[in-house]
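step=encode ok
step=design start
structure_in=
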C-alpha cells in the first residue's frame, strides 16, 4: 500500500501526478481555504504534507497527527512551521532554497526601482486622464545608479540583489546581517558590512531580505524609519511582520521617507488601510518568486523532498537534518 500524503494547496497538476506515482494523494485542486481544524482533520492518517507559506504546522496539529513524518514547504521561508516542535517529534521539515534566489532578487530590484521611479503612481496618473502636459518636475523620483543600496539580511537573495546593484547599476552597496560574509563573498558582491544604524542612516534604497522570526518582528518600526533619509525608499520582499506596517504608513504619509515597495504584509492577504490610501507606495501581492519556471522548480523541489523522505532517499533541502540522523 502506498503511503498517504496531503497536498494542502492547489499546485501544478503535473507535480501532483508525480506524487501519485509514489503516494496515495489527497489534494486541494480547488484551493479551498481550509481552517486549521480542517487541516488537522485532512491530515489524519497522512505521513507527509506538501505545504505553502500559508499552511501552519503547529503543536496542536502535530499532537493531533502523531503519524506525520515529513512536512515539505514550497517556499524558502518557513516561519509557518514550528520547527523545534517538529524536531522534538521527529518530523522532518524541508524548504525550497536556491531555485528561487535569482527570480526573487530580480523582483526585489524591480520593486525598489518601481518605488524610486514612481512607476505605478505614474501609470495611475495616466489612466485617470490627468496627463495633460509635460512638466519639469512631473513624477520626479530618485536615481538608482550611483546611489547607496542598503540590504538588511544578506543570505542568498540579499547577495543576488547586491550583485545586481553593484555590477549592473554602479551602486555603492552596504549591508547588515546577523553574521558577516566572508571576504571573498563581500568582494563578489562589492558590499561593505555596516551596523544597522549606519545602514538606516546611509541607504538611499533599503531592501529587506531577512527571515521572519521573533527577533526580526518589527525590525523596521517607527524608531528605525525615523533614522532613514527623507529621500530614501524602503522595499520589503521578506515577510510581513518584519516591518511595522502602521508605522510605515505614517512615515510615508508624513514623508519621513519618500517611497516604499512592499510585497509582503502583516496579516496578508489583508493590507493595512493606511498603505492602501497612499500614492508613494508600490503594493504587490506576495509575488517575488512568481515566474512560471521558478514556481514549477519550487513545487518540484518540495515534491523531491517529500518523495525522498518517504522512500528512503536523501531529501535535498532539509531544515532540521538532525531528524534524519536519528
Ligand atoms: C512563496 C516565499 O511564494 O519562498 C518564500 O519564502 O515567500 C514565496 O516564494 C510563498 O511563501 C508561498 O509558499
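sequence_out=
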Amino acid at each position: 500500500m502506498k503511503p498517504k500524503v496531503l497536498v494542502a494547496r492547489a499546485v501544478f497538476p503535473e507535480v501532483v501526478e508525480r506524487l501519485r506515482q509514489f503516494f496515495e494523494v489527497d489534494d486541494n485542486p480547488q484551493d479551498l481555504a481550509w481552517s486549521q481544524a480542517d487541516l488537522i482533520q485532512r491530515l489524519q492518517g497522512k505521513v507527509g504534507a506538501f505545504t505553502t507559506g500559508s499552511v501552519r504546522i503547529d503543536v496542536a496539529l502535530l499532537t493531533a497527527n502523531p503519524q506525520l513524518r515529513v512536512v515539505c514547504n514550497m517556499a524558502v521561508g518557513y516561519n509557518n512551521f514550528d520547527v523545534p516542535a517538529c524536531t522534538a517529534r521527529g518530523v522532518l521539515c524541508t524548504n525550497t532554497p536556491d531555485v528561487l534566489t535569482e527570480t526573487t532578487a530580480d523582483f526585489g530590484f524591480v520593486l525598489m526601482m518601481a518605488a524610486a521611479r514612481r512607476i505605478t503612481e505614474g501609470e495611475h496618473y495616466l489612466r485617470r486622464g490627468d496627463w495633460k502636459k509635460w512638466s519639469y518636475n512631473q513624477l520626479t523620483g530618485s536615481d538608482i545608479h550611483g546611489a547607496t543600496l542598503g540590504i538588511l539580511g544578506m543570505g542568498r537573495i540579499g547577495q543576488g540583489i547586491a550583485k545586481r546593484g553593484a555590477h549592473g547599476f554602479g551602486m555603492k552597496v552596504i549591508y547588515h546581517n546577523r553574521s558577516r560574509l566572508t571576504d571573498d563573498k563581500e568582494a563578489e558582491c562589492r558590499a561593505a558590512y555596516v551596523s544597522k544604524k549606519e545602514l538606516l542612516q546611509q541607504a538611499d534604497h533599503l531592501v529587506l531580505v531577512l527571515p521572519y522570526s521573533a527577533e526580526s518582528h518589527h525590525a523596521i518600526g517607527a524608531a528605525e524609519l525615523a533614522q532613514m533619509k527623507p529621500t530614501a525608499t524602503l522595499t520589503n520582499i521578506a515577510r510581513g511582520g518584519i516591518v511595522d506596517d502602521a508605522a510605515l504608513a505614517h512615515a510615508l504619509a508624513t514623508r519621513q521617507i519618500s517611497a516604499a515597495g512592499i510585497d509582503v504584509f502583516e496579516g496578508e492577504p489583508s493590507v493595512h488601510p493606511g498603505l492602501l490610501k497612499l500614492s508613494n507606495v508600490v503594493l504587490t501581492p506576495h509575488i517575488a518568486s512568481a515566474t512560471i519556471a521558478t514556481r514549477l522548480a519550487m513545487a518540484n523541489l518540495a515534491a523531491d523532498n517529500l518523495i525522498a523522505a518517504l522512500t528512503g532517499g536523501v531529501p535535498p533541502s532539509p531544515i532540521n537534518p538532525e531528524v534524519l540522523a536519528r
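step=design ok
step=annotate ok -> The chain has a mean pLDDT of 98.
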